[in-house]
Amino acid sequence: MSGVDAELQRIAALPGSGRYELEFRFGDGSLGTAVVEVGATGIRAAPASLPPAWHPGSEPLAAVSEAVLALHRARTRASALPTLRDVPGGWDVSIGNVVLTDGVPHCLAHGPMAVAGDVFACELCGARAVLDLGADGVTDAESNAASG
Fold first, then answer.
1. Separation of alpha carbons 82 and 95, rounded Å
2. CB 68 within 8 A of CB 54
3. Which pLDDT band holds residue 50 (cuts at 50, 70, 90)?
């Protein structure tokens, strides 16, 4: 392994559907991570977060893509628990401002959150999150709208 080569160490499922963290080890022993997302045509990632040799069309990225897609298929076929995820461009779930308590999104500082469209929001501080109910990808807000 040369100084820029990398070896996949771990694939970890992240909250929500289709998001995974890759951990890799470089030839010098240092570690790196990248977050990838499963899309209609394979996996997507910020190119700068991947090892230099892992570019579109490369053998290493193709092999990792196969592994991620196999894990994704297995996860989508199993029952999934409700999970919180950040709204696009948001970070409240990632940094722990929003937690799931008894199946209800709660602002850590202010308690239960209100539904605003397909997003749960804290009326006091503006923290926001989306609740995925499981493998079907339906959010709690969509479920409430369909039943109400």
1. 18
2. no
3. very high
The DSSP secondary structure of 7-58, one letter per residue, reads EEEEEEEPSSSSEEEEEEEETTS-EEEEEEEEETTEEEE-GGGS-TT--TT-
Which one, of 102, 113, 105, lies nearest residue 84 by Cα? 105
What's the Cα-to-Cα distance from 14 to each of 35, 36, 81, 82, 84, rounded to whole Å?
9, 10, 12, 13, 10
Picking from 79, 90, 86, 89, the residue whose alpha carbon sits closest to that of residue 105 is 86
Are residues 38 and 18 in contact, defined by beta-carbon separation less than 8 angstroms? yes
Residue type, 23: E
Average pLDDT over residues 120-133: 92
Q: Tell me the pTM.
A: 0.56
Domain boundaries defined on the chain = 6-77, 83-147
